[in-house]
Amino acid sequence: MRPLKKDSNKVEERKFIAITVALWVIVLILVPVLLNITCIKQLFLYLISFTNSADYKIAYVEFWGTIIGSFIAIWGALYVQRKIDKNSEHSNQVKYAYVVYYDLRFALKDLNDICDEAINKNNNFVKQLDVYNFYQSAKGRKIHLNPKWIADVAQLNGVFSDDEIEQIYTYYGKLVDIDRAFQSESLEKIEKAFTCVKQDFRADSIEGDYEKYIDVLDKLHQFITQNKSDEKYQQF
Fold first, then answer.
1. Is 107 within a domain?
2. What is the pLDDT of residues 144-187, one digit of tens each?
3. Is 121 helix (H, G, I), strand (E, B) or coil?
4. Residue 142: which of 181, 103, 100, 101 has the closest Cα?
5. What's this model's pTM, rounded to 2 decimal places?
6. Structurally, how many domains does the chain consist of?
7. Which domain does 170 fall in, by range?
8. DSSP state at residue 144
9. Where are the alpha helices (DSSP H) in the chain?
10. Within-domain flag for 193
11. Is 157 part of a structural domain of the chain?
12. Which of 45, 107, 150, 229 is least enclosed by beta carbons within 10 angstroms?
């Protein structure tokens, strides 16, 4: 997961605002001083020498003041909009992290329930998961996955590294294959799914502690936790 830079961004934003305000204060202070310099004063008088009317001269100065003020206002509006867009993008990434996180958790809960059911069918003193009971419990069952999971994971680009995104897609792909095997009710396919469930998801033993064994879930959980206290994201 790429490091978050919310705090550093806030510091940079405050620095930017402070520098901008300081520059404008300096300009306001320097203008009267600069107009006392002969060459600058002569240049200014030359620029307004096209008319002898005091009203026109004042209007001319106001005209340029309006242009400069408009430029500053437009620049400020664009800067604020850019910040809003950036925060909105991050808010969406947090929202989709929630969606993907709970989607994977619910899918693993489905696997966990199937494994528990299969283990409880075992009449031996030592309860363990075997392929026959797993087949009996899994055939025809469904792993509930969000049909939009491909697009949801794509929204996490920029927050997680390419390798981490690929890892999330890989887990989803395996869950889809497991679901298809269950739906097929084929003994051969469910036997292959049985191996994947035990080795890749450890659904026979995790008992709800999914983040401890599934690395991508742990990373998603960390990202959500880091952003949970941010007021901008409380709505999610």
1. yes
2. 999 999 999 999 988 888 999 999 999 999 999 999 999 999 99
3. coil
4. 181
5. 0.65
6. 1
7. 89-233
8. -
9. 6-35, 38-47, 54-120, 131-138, 149-154, 162-184, 187-196, 210-213, 215-228
10. yes
11. yes
12. 229
